[in-house]
């Protein structure tokens, strides 16, 4: 009659479902260890000395296993026959079987005397699960602003507390800010601060001057942060606030919206069946087995499929209907060019085609003005108006997840530690705060007084090769929205990018056209100048939109889907691109004297990376737009077009002055400079190009040169070591099958994998002291790279990042001075082939005229490059823009894959750009419409195995600590197992240890409890069977408050991390083990101490223990991996049983290749040898162990933070990893001190330069500015003309897929974007 609300009686907390209450009761309830039954279980023994109070339920692991078993079989505690009194206290205790089955005695006699186990079980570990990230429930505060410069905009000062979907908020209306101001005597300006309640991790927000009407983080739960594809998702596809037809400018009446009465909901197609077929067609550009399965499953077998719907079906006719519906009407075949005039597209986000003109410079040719100079007309520029794309995005259902106000994210680690600021998203960055303050301090905005929102726009552009055959390329510009969380927008499956333009190339006839005008062919300098002009001309078309300028200055007033009218201030946040494209956009020389895009440091000073003077120069000499610069550029152009000077003449250079500028006017400066916008602030660091295929690739290649100079055998050994590196995670570190020294088609993620395991692979390949030098250099670079890849930074990690940058600079200079100077290195074979190929192409000869040029030339290492210099900008970029994944070029590289697949559907002729633009609109429409019209694209896919003995696992609840299959398909009889493995050292005391482990869990005793023979006899295994499982999934909370999952497979990925027991002698907080078997047993326990005689399921992991090698120095100060070795099989501590819930997560264990292998630890034929290594193209069970192993602390971001300490999400292990923080120098950091509003009241102190730094500086001043070897690998001698003529494009082709691209978008997920893992 009345619905009972599930609640936890001890702590009175209520839950939505019984299942949620059970999880809380088993793991989160503070009274879970004190729960006591009101009745004893069956077969109570009156002669037992224990009282009822002492007989406790095993409310931890066994209860959880029982709940899992009950849940897997469809049981629910509401269906159990429990009395009312018992139900209140025992609803969470579900048992798979309450009947007491007949007892079966053990058939294996227990040993009479067994040595006691010395090793205790690992410490109890309980991971904290994300429940809710934000709740706007705390008080507001006013704070007087001392300067009038920060006077806030009245439209932003109004406090609007009309929150939506708030639960448990105070209903007392808060006074408006204006009321406080009116009551003040002097009516001085105020800044308003609003602070949220800290969540369970101690994280809270501070909003400045205004609070959003909607906070997308407010109701985030565990399902929202569950990233692993094997997690079950409780999130459905919500119905948008308005129909999707409206989002595309098509307005349907109420009758049309009712799909039950009309088929207009599937417009422009006639019926649902045709829609599903067309949707399938655009989802699978190429035929494959997956596409065929989808055709059958999603189209033919769908319940709405009707054969009669396809009578008269013609594909071309349906495509034309779609084009007409999208406002792209007109007769058009796949092989033709649509050629729409500029105003032909009535749809507000349709494509336009236009032409642009650029002036042609020529030395000694003068004109009255630049406008009178001859021009070149370039047709076929396809673009979309940025403002129309923005409007469409704001009307899309995904805009409900936009963060409307910037805020500071703060973290209280504990009550006795100071607050730290966190950096992660665009809307938690200093740049975003700066933009909001500029809006508030600006003039009063016209129009209605509505909520003002700064909308950050992220841009990306880069040329990509569509087809190697014919060298067909495309140069797209993409737009992203910074208000959407990166955990959503950067997923390839989210299609977060919007195509806004395709930049054309200079026409093939440019030389003839130029010669017809001036009588001579254009020089290389002129062609480079024209390419720069072309880039800015395209952006002038995009930006010179009066409506866009008005939206930038006064804002775009728009009624959002939630019914609230807001003012959106458009702001350009970042522009991500590689270095050559940055040079085109910033209008600076490629690799000029002032080669940096952020500061004006000179090239010869790059070697001083990390030194105090270098870091100070970056602050004192920023590259910025100014009125003076605009005047200098204008004067330089006057020299070119009016006075007839050459584009790179001394007169032009003198007019431009210092800074390595070019005589090009930036479109961003031309349009937005007068409104106070500095376009150079958009350009920030690029981890993919500058580090992974930049600095690390340069260092790695020179390591190969050194090894070739020593002995080719060392190169073969390096290749062999890399091939033996075990993979880790879901594509986190992939198996390396090729020879790394050949460098065949290696992408950025390949070099990233090489770096993460390089320390073990390069060990002892060089003689001392060079081995120690390169080991230190690799460690410092891997540490730097790990900090750079973090998705969540704190003040502490940023300070560590700065320190590591300085240390890496020291290691780099030491490597250059000592190791590089010691070896005479020559170019690799791949480098030689490329050099010869480039020489032939430039000379136009089939064979080289100089035989000497065919030989290997000397090649030295040069650190004076932009990519090394840029490393010093990364720590400040994290604070100013957010973490590097926010503005990485990798999402743009992945977006190229979509462009390539759309190109497959074009006619592949010279007019393919227009065809591709039309294909993009079709694909975008079908992708979004399919979400509304019945095909909800799943965020996660179920994981199944295709091996012969498959054991598929269903999707897992992310709040559970682990998942193991519930089936009993594979089993072993315990007596038979013991008899068949007699004499195997791994099976010594197997049954004895197994029973002790089960007793500890059944009786819920302390971990080191000793049990008697009587206790072990009272524990029996039902049917004497072990039920073996293939996989174990470990769920864990990451350092950045996400929920992730590791898959443990004893054959392929068996190594796990556990928390060490308290009082560990080594002081190391972790234990390490290799899982050799996963199984569950069904046990019963009788006797005087028994409180429950029913059958219980226990899930167990049988492990082989590693022990820490304390004979070597390891850790952050030693700059070496932590060493491990297996415990010898004869030791009683060699093997053991653990509860899977005690596993923290998987760990990547690397062999110490330098020390070889041994068979002393375990016989080759032992039953414990199940791990399979990959050799000669097949998997084989390992017959030997490596003498030593290393813990790869750089395997992924989360593992790095577990060994560095201080991870926000690692609440359960924070105090245990303080030893790591001490080793990493965290205790010595001087961090900013914040007040309660998140404002800095005490800045961090600058550390003095060390003696080593000063010595390095003096030595550098004596030796000069770095390597001046003409045979250096520095590409600074390459002019911008040579680059723009295609040299770098050929290098990209040699590299393989563009920089970081992968071949199959179906395999893309968080991992390939750097999420969840590396």
From TrEMBL:
Region (Disordered): 29-74, 101-123, 328-348, 1243-1318
InterPro entries: Plavaka, Znf_C2H2_type
PROSITE patterns: ZINC_FINGER_C2H2_1 (PS00028)
Domain C2H2-type: 8-28
Acidic residues bias: start-end ranges: 1249-1264, 1271-1306
Amino acid composition bias (Basic and acidic residues), ranges on this chain: 44-59
Protein name per Swiss-Prot or TrEMBL: C2H2-type domain-containing protein
Source organism per UniProt: Dendrothele bispora (strain CBS 962.96)
Lineage: Eukaryota, Fungi, Dikarya, Basidiomycota, Agaricomycotina
């Amino acid at each position: 009659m009345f619905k009972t609300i599930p609640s936890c009686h001890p702590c009175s907390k209520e839950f939505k479902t019984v299942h949620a209450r059970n999880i809380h009761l088993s793991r989160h309830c503070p009274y879970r260890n004190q729960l006591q039954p009101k009745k004893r279980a069956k077969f109570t023994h009156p002669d037992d000395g224990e009282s009822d109070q002492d007989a406790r339920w095993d409310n931890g692991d066994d209860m959880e296993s029982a709940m899992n078993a009950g849940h897997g079989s469809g049981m629910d505690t509401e269906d159990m026959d429990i009395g009312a009194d018992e139900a209140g206290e025992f609803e969470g205790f579900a048992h798979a079987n309450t009947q007491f089955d007949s007892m079966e005695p053990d058939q294996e006699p227990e040993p009479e005397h067994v040595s006691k186990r010395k090793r205790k079980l690992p410490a109890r570990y309980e991971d904290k699960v994300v429940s809710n990230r934000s709740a706007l429930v705390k008080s507001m505060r006013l704070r007087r602003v001392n300067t009038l410069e920060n006077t806030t905009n009245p439209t932003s000062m109004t406090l609007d507390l009309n929150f939506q979907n708030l639960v448990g908020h105070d209903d007392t209306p808060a006074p408006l800010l204006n009321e406080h101001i009116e009551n003040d005597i002097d009516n001085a300006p105020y800044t308003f601060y609003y602070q949220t309640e800290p969540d369970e991790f101690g994280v809270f927000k501070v909003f400045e001057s205004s609070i959003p009407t909607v906070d997308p983080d407010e109701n985030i739960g565990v399902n929202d942060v569950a990233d692993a594809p094997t997690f079950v998702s409780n999130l459905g596809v919500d119905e948008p606030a308005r129909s999707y037809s409206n989002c595309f400018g098509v307005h349907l009446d109420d009758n049309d919206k009712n799909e039950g009465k009309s088929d207009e909901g599937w417009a422009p197609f006639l019926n649902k069946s045709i829609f599903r077929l067309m949707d399938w067609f655009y989802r699978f550009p190429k035929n494959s087995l997956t596409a065929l399965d989808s055709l059958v499953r999603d189209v033919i077998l769908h319940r709405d499929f009707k054969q009669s719907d396809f009578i008269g079906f013609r594909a071309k006719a349906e495509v034309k209907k779609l084009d007409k519906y999208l406002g792209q009407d007109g007769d058009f075949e796949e092989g033709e060019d649509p050629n729409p005039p500029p105003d032909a597209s009535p749809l507000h986000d349709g494509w336009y085609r236009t032409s642009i003109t650029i002036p042609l410079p020529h030395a000694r040719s003068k004109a009255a003005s630049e406008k009178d100079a001859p021009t070149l007309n370039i047709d076929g520029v396809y673009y979309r108006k940025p403002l129309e794309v923005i409007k469409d995005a704001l009307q899309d259902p995904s805009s409900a997840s936009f963060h409307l106000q910037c805020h500071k994210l703060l973290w209280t680690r504990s009550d006795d530690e100071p607050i730290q600021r966190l950096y992660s998203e665009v809307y938690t960055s200093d740049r975003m705060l700066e933009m909001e303050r500029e809006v508030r301090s600006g003039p009063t905005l016209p129009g209605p007084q509505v909520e003002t929102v700064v909308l950050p726009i992220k841009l990306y552009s880069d040329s990509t090769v569509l087809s190697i055959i014919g060298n067909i390329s495309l140069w797209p510009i993409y737009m992203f929205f910074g208000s959407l969380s990166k955990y959503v927008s950067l997923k390839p499956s989210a299609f977060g990018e919007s195509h806004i333009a395709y930049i054309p190339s200079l026409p093939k006839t440019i030389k003839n056209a130029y010669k017809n005008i001036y009588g001579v062919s254009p020089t290389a300098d002129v062609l480079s100048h024209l390419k720069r002009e072309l880039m800015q001309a395209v952006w002038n078309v995009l930006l010179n939109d009066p409506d866009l300028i008005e939206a930038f200055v006064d804002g775009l007033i728009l009624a959002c889907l939630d019914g609230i009218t807001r003012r959106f201030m458009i702001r350009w946040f970042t522009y991500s691109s590689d270095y050559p494209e940055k040079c085109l956009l910033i209008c600076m020389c490629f690799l000029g004297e002032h080669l940096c895009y952020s500061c004006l440091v000179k090239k010869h000073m790059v070697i001083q990376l990390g030194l105090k003077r270098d870091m100070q120069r970056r602050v004192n000499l920023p590259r910025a737009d100014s009125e003076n610069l605009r005047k200098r550029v204008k004067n330089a152009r006057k020299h070119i077009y009016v006075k007839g000077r050459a584009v790179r003449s001394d007169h032009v250079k003198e007019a431009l002055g210092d800074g390595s500028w070019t005589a090009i006017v930036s479109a961003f400066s031309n349009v937005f400079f007068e409104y106070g916008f500095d376009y150079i602030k958009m350009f920030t660091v690029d981890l993919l190009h500058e580090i992974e295929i930049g600095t690390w690739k340069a260092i790695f290649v020179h390591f190969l040169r050194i090894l070739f100079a020593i002995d080719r055998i060392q190169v073969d050994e390096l290749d062999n070591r890399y091939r033996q590196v075990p993979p880790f995670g879901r594509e986190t570190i992939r198996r390396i099958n090729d020879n790394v020294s050949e460098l065949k088609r290696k992408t950025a993620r390949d070099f990233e994998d090489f770096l993460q395991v390089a320390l073990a692979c390069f060990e002892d390949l060089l003689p001392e002291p060079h081995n120690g030098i390169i080991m230190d250099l690799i460690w410092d670079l891997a540490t730097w790279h790990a900090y750079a890849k973090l998705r969540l930074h704190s003040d502490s990690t940023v300070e560590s990042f700065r320190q590591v940058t300085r240390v890496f600079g020291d290691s780099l200079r030491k490597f250059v001075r000592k190791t590089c100077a010691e070896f005479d290195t020559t170019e690799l074979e791949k480098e030689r082939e490329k050099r010869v190929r480039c020489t032939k192409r430039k000379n136009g000869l089939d064979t080289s005229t100089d035989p000497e040029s065919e030989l290997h030339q000397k090649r030295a290492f040069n650190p004076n490059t932009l990519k090394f210099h840029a490393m010093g900008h990364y720590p400040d970029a994290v604070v100013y823009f957010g973490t590097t994944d926010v503005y990485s070029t990798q999402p743009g590289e992945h977006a190229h894959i979509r462009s390539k697949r759309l190109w497959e559907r074009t006619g592949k002729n010279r007019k393919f750009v227009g065809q591709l633009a039309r294909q993009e609109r079709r694909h975008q429409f079908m992708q979004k419409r399919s979400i509304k019209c019945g095909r909800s694209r799943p965020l996660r896919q179920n994981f199944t195995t295709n091996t012969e003995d498959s054991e598929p696992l269903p999707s897992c609840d992310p709040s559970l600590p682990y998942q193991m299959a519930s089936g009993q398909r594979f089993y072993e009889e315990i007596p038979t197992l013991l008899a068949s493995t007699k004499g195997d050292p791994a099976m010594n005391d197997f049954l004895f240890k197994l029973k002790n482990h089960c007793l500890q869990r059944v009786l819920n005793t302390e971990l080191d409890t000793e049990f008697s023979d009587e206790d072990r006899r009272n524990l029996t295994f039902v049917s004497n069977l072990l039920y073996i499982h293939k996989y174990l999934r470990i769920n864990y909370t990451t350092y950045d408050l996400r929920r992730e999952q590791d898959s443990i497979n004893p054959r392929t990925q068996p190594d796990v991390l556990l928390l060490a027991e308290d009082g560990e002698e080594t002081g190391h907080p972790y234990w390490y083990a290799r899982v050799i078997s996963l199984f569950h047993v069904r046990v019963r326990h009788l006797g005087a101490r028994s409180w429950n005689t029913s059958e219980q399921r226990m899930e167990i992991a049988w492990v082989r223990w590693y022990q820490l090698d304390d004979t070597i120095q390891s850790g952050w100060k030693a700059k070496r991996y932590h060493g491990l070795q297996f415990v010898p099989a004869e030791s009683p501590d060699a093997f053991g049983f653990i509860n899977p819930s005690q596993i923290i997560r998987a760990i990547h264990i690397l062999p110490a290749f330098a020390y070889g292998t041994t068979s002393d630890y375990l016989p080759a034929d032992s039953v414990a040898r199940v791990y399979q290594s990959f050799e000669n193209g097949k998997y084989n069970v390992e017959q030997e162990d490596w003498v030593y192993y290393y813990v790869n602390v750089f395997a992924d971001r989360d593992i790095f933070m577990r060994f560095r300490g201080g991870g926000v999400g690692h609440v359960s292990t924070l105090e245990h990893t303080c030893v790591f923080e001490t080793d990493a120098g965290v205790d010595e950091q001087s961090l900013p001190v914040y007040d309660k509003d998140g404002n800095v009241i005490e800045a961090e102190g600058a550390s003095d330069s060390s003696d080593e730094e000063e010595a390095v500086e003096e030595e550098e001043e004596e030796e000069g500015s770095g390597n001046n070897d003409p045979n250096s690998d520095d590409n600074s001698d390459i002019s911008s003309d040579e680059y723009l003529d295609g040299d770098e494009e050929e290098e990209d082709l040699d590299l393989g897929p563009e920089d970081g691209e992968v071949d199959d978008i179906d395999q893309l997920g968080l991992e390939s974007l750097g999420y969840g893992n590396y």
